[in-house]
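ok trying this again, last paste got cut off
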Amino acid sequence: MMKAQELHKILAGDRPDAAVWVEAASACGIVEAQVRLGRMLLEGEGAARSLQAAFACFRAAADGDDPDALNMLGRCYENGWGTAADPTRAADCYRRAAEAGLAWAQYNLGHMFLNGTGASRDHKAAFGWYRRAADQGHARAMNLVARCYEEGWGIGRDRISAKLWYRRSAEGRYFRGAFNYAAMLTDEGEIEEAAPWFAKALRDAPEPTRSFMTRRLALHPEPSIRALA
C-alpha cells in the first residue's frame, strides 16, 4: 500500500506520472485528489481541459466540507465554470470555507460583500473578512485591507494604516500592493523611495494590468517616475 507521504507528493505533482495517480486516487474518493484533479481539468494541465468535469470534481470533494473544495466550487458558481453562474451559491460556498479558516475563501467572500454579489453589500463585513485573510499572510487581502482604510470602506479612513497594509502587501510580492504603496509614497513626496516599488509592480504585473500601470506612470508629474514607463 502506498504511504500517505508518497501519495501527497504525487498529488502535489512531483512525479511525471502524477496525472495517472491523481485520477486513480480521485476515483477512490480521496478528497485531496479530487481537488487536485479538478484544478488540472480547470487549467488543462496534465489532463484535457473540461470545466464541467472540474466542477464535478470540486462538487464531489465539497460534499465532505473540504475548505479547498468549497472555495473552488464557489469560484465555479461565481464564474459559471462548468455550471450556471449562481452568486448566491458561490457566497455560501465561500462562507463555509471561510468559517473553516481558509484565507482564499475569506478573501473571496470579502469581495462578495464589497460588491453586493451573492450577498447584501456590506463594507464592514467585507473589511472583516479581508482582515482575517490578511492576518494569515494573504498579500492580496492585505492590499484590500489597505484600500478599505484609504477609502473608508467599513472602517474609518486612516492613511497611516492604509500605508502600512499596502507596504505589507508589497512585501508579500503582490504587484497591486506594490503599486498602491508607491502611489502613497509619491503623494507624500517620497519619490526616491517610491520608484523601486513602481518598478517592482511593473515587473510582476501580468497583462493587461502592466499596460494600465504603465499608462498611469507615463502621466505622472514627476519626471523620474514617468521615466519608468
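PB: full thing came through this time. The chain has a mean pLDDT of 92.
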